[in-house]
Amino acid sequence: MGKVYRDAKEALSGLLRDGMMIHSGGFGLCGIPALLIEAIRDSGVKDLTIVSNNAGIDDAGLGLLLKTRQVKKMISSYVGENKTFAEQFLAGELEIEFNPQGTLAERIRAGGAGIPAFYTKTGVGTEVAKGKPTAEFDGETYVMERGIVADLAIVHAWTGDTEGNLVYRKTARNFNPMMATAAKVTVAQVEHLVQPGEIDPDHVHTPGVFVQRMIQCPAGYEKRIEQRTVRQRATAGAAAGEEV
């Protein structure tokens, strides 16, 4: 069977189970696998451990899974945009494992590279290092962090070919590439689906060997903006330094 599936529900068929760990790519709402997240919500699977830089917002991204209380634990570096998350955490209904952002990225990368653990100075002497082994290197104290390998990774790419080779665009090239390598199964949603050979090999960010299933986003797929900020455009004369 080929790697391309008709929709998110079909692509996730047979992969989901209660209590599993899922890598979810994206940064804020940029580069998130929104269609796959919605399909996970609709499946009703529960007690999930989600590894993601952040927890989305209340009505989008991983916030959808928090709203339906399908998430048992979040492994993240930032969750400040989600009121639902805060309420559940403060009520003792949701576990959180905070990581410095670089440490989280390296834990995922290490998992994909087959590295079970590594040492870092980040977090030494703080709550982050509590209960973790430490060691001395060149007179400095380092804390040991474990690599992370998930049961499933869901990622979003700009372009992908039918063999699973992926290209990410700009900020969406955040946690997606490393997560795609660090799971037993990776499912990708792509905005543009092309045939093998149409992507320059030098432009591939995630080789197809890491991707088992994929879907194409439908026409008109909406990419949400977490916080839209705009400034008033200067007139042509003002931009040129003229008096207006």
TrEMBL record:
Gene3D superfamilies: Glutaconate Coenzyme A-transferase (3.40.1080.10). GO terms for molecular function: CoA-transferase activity. Transmembrane segments: none annotated. InterPro entries: 3-oxoacid_CoA-transf_A, CoA_trans_fam_I, NagB/RpiA_transferase-like. The keyword Transmembrane helix does not apply. Pfam families: CoA_trans. It comes from the Bacteria. Coiled coil: none annotated. Keywords: Transferase. This is Succinyl-CoA--3-ketoacid-CoA transferase.
